[in-house]
Design goal:
With 124 residues, the chain is of the alpha+beta class. The protein has one domain: Beta Barrel (OB fold (Dihydrolipoamide Acetyltransferase, E2P)). Helix content is 23%, strand content 36%. The strands form 2 sheets. A 5-stranded mixed barrel has the order 1-2-3-7-4. A two-stranded antiparallel ribbon has the order 5-6. Strand 5 and strand 6 form a beta hairpin. The N terminus is likely disordered. This is Lipoprotein. Keywords: Signal. It comes from Brevundimonas staleyi.
Length: 124
């Protein structure tokens, strides 16, 4: 290998960025009274606030599209447990929305984070 080819190979290998492994998001459970609005849901922590119609403060979230649709039809105005991950909300998102597995999340609650849900169950 010529000296020029060796120098080029070394400089090319040095220019390739290394990717460090990122930890997987931690699954968390969120509990509250649920309201569905379009392709997202809102969780309200306090039952009294929910019953009286005070929907804020709340946390917006979404489930994968088919689970979101099914849940909106079968679960409503009940206390639920949502398993998922929290994602920091940014006003820099294109269209001020986030598409999560077919559902459009607009953060109607306006909180600093939203819930990307993977599972939902009613708490009896």
């Amino acid at each position: 290998m010529s000296l020029i080819a060796a120098a080029l190979a070394v400089s090319l290998s040095a220019a390739v960025p290394t990717v460090e492994a990122q930890p997987a998001p931690t699954q968390t459970t969120f509990e509250g009274w649920i309201n569905f609005s379009g392709q997202e849901f809102q969780l309200v922590e306090n039952q009294n606030r929910y019953v009286t119609g005070a929907r804020r403060p709340c946390v917006s979230g979404s489930l994968p599209r088919d689970l979101q649709r099914m849940s909106a039809q079968t679960i409503g105005r009940q206390k639920v447990r949502v398993t998922g991950t929290a994602m920091a909300w940014s006003s820099d998102l294109p269209g001020n929305r986030y598409e999560y597995q077919g559902s459009v999340l607009r953060n109607e609650c306006g909180a600093d984070f939203v819930i990307l849900g993977t599972d939902i169950s009613v708490i009896q």
